[in-house]
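Look over this today:
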Amino acid sequence: MYCHHCVREHDADAVYCSRCGRLLEPERNLQHGTEDKAAALEEWDTAKDQASTALETSQTPLKQTGRGNLLIGLIPVIVLVGIAAVLLSYYLYETRLNNRVLDWQNAARQEALAGKYEEAFRQLNKAADARPDFKPVQADLKVVEEALSLDRTLTEIQQRLDDQDLGEASIQLEQVKSKLRGREEPIFGRVRDQVEEMSTKVTVLQVSSEYESMTGIDDLAGEYNQVKGLSGDEALALRQKIEAKIADISYDEADAMRKKKNFSAAITAAQKGLIYAPDNDKLAKLYDRIVVEKKNFEDAEQQRIEQAMQKAAEEDLINQTAAVKVKHIDAQLDLFGDFNVKGELLNAATRPIYSVVIEYTVHDSEGKVITTGKVDATPSYIEAGETFSFSFVVHHVQDENATVAIDHMTWYLD
């Protein structure tokens, strides 16, 4: 059987449609045949009468019972809808809170990278209060706390530097450096920059208080090397002052050596200063002057050496060939026919001589040889420039016009 309103199939004995509640009309579901049609009409009439009676006696109670059932059936739906709404609201709230926590965390990271540790700490505290168990926030908060602590310590160090308390500032600065070792997080970038700047300042202040009393180039060179690699205007200005002082000391030392003709030492002193002050014009000009004077001096010295060598050669020639000069010879014939000869000699050498032997010849008035001989000069040892003598006697000459001639002389140089 089918409902002619909603076309739903029902059992053959059904009276009402289970879907729309309308009475089923059997004539629309009859099969072919008169008997079946008559039986169906009879059942329809009976059912119709029963339904009419039932509707008349219980119309109102049925309507009330249907509304009550409807309300009762809606209660679970309402409860489910309410629970779903609550859950949805809670979910949306939690989602928004999570997003806010992430926003605070990201903002804190940006502030920390910019060196604004106080603001980063404040943002992370809000995130930590909202999500105490969120480990990434707790980890970031710990790192920011460390950076903030170091930043506050650096503020104290800066105050000590302003007060010229270098000792305590240096100690605290080394402590900060120790804590920074091994910390590679970008958040510590600003702290590292500050540490570098303060280290430079400490070094500059220490060197500034020491170098002015130094008078040696080596000591000043040690101070110079401390600030050589430092950056910044203060370090540059201090380095230039030390360079100038080294150049002045080097100039004075080099010039003093130059005046003493100690050109090698002068060049060394000037070069030492130019190592640290290569652009010092005054020192560079002195160096060039020393080099020129050294060359001139060496050239002159070489000339003097050559002259001395020439002179020495000449002297040696004299010493070897003409060390003894005859100043004069006196020869007389006495009453007994003896020919008495005396001579005075001069040591013309540049060195002492000794064992001088004179070889002589005596001639008669006709130039014939009367006799020859040798005689030793006295004294045996003669200093350079001293005079000495010799004498001998030739017997039985008998010629008043006899003469004596020095044939050869020998000596030894000391």
User: Anything to note?
Assistant: Confidence is low (pLDDT under 50) at residues 27-41, 50-64. Residues 34-113 form the longest helix (80 residues). The beta strands are 324-333, 339-347, 353-363, 369-376, 381-382, 387-394, 403-413. DSSP finds nine helices and seven strands in the chain.
